[in-house]
Amino acid sequence: MCLSLQIAAREHLRELVLLRRVRDRIDREPTLDVEALADSAGMAAGDFLRRFRDAYGQSPHAYQRTARAVRTRTFDRVLETR
Question: What tens digit of pLDDT does each residue of 8-25 get?
Answer without folding.
Answer: 999 999 999 999 999 999
